[in-house]
């Protein structure tokens, strides 16, 4: 995302995005206790570069403040409204692009929720912000996240090392998807 696109997010109200099983709504400070309860799990923190361990309510409040004005959503269940995790798009080093980030509490792993949330925010990013490109990374040992990335249609671009707050420097895989590829994937899915 360029600075103009970042500035534009500050002037718009983020919508609520709905999927078959989820409601993605803008994060609010009242989400901090539930976020802390979910993210204060070493299994979660070890897989997400930006999550320290232990993870406190203050950490959650800091994160919520840091994403204000950016597309960052609470992943909630459509039936009960309970917080399950977070999905967001944030500026990255590639001009005009955004980086996808997501995490779920351990109890919600393996149910397809991350893929469902990622699809919704990717589509939102391409439509709302006119992004030309979305990038994403995962730990090389995170097979579940790699599968989410593959199911979304991202293309592998390489490996590297990333410094994480909970696990130190770790091997990561990087992926990207341009808007044309996303549109083709969506059109193919409707055929």
TrEMBL record:
Residues 22-182 form the N-acetyltransferase domain. InterPro entries: Acyl_CoA_acyltransferase, GNAT_dom, N-acetyltransferase. Pfam families: Acetyltransf_3 (PF13302). One of its GO terms (molecular function) is acyltransferase activity, transferring groups other than amino-acyl groups. Keywords: Transferase. This is Protein N-acetyltransferase, RimJ/RimL family. It comes from Consotaella salsifontis. The lineage of its organism: Bacteria, Pseudomonadati, Pseudomonadota, Alphaproteobacteria, Hyphomicrobiales.
């Amino acid at each position: 995302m360029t600075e103009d696109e970042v500035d534009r997010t500050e002037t718009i109200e983020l919508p609520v995005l709905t999927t078959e099983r989820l409601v993605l709504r803008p994060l609010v400070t009242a989400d901090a206790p539930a976020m802390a309860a979910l993210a204060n799990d070493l299994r979660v923190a070890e897989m997400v570069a930006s999550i320290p361990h232990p993870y406190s309510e203050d950490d959650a409040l800091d994160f919520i403040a840091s994403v204000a004005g950016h597309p960052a959503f609470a992943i909630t269940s459509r039936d009960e409204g309970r917080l399950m995790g977070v999905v967001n798009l944030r500026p990255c080093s590639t001009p005009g692009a955004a980086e996808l980030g997501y995490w779920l509490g351990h109890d919600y792993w393996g149910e397809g929720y991350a893929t469902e949330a990622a699809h919704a925010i990717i589509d939102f990013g391409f439509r709302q912000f006119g992004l030309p490109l979305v990038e994403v990374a995962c730990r090389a040992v995170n097979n579940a996240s790699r599968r989410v990335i593959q199911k979304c249609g991202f293309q592998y671009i390489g490996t590297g090392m990333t410094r994480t707050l909970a696990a130190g420097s770790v091997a990561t895989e990087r992926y990207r998807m341009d808007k044309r590829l996303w549109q083709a994937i969506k059109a193919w899915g409707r055929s």
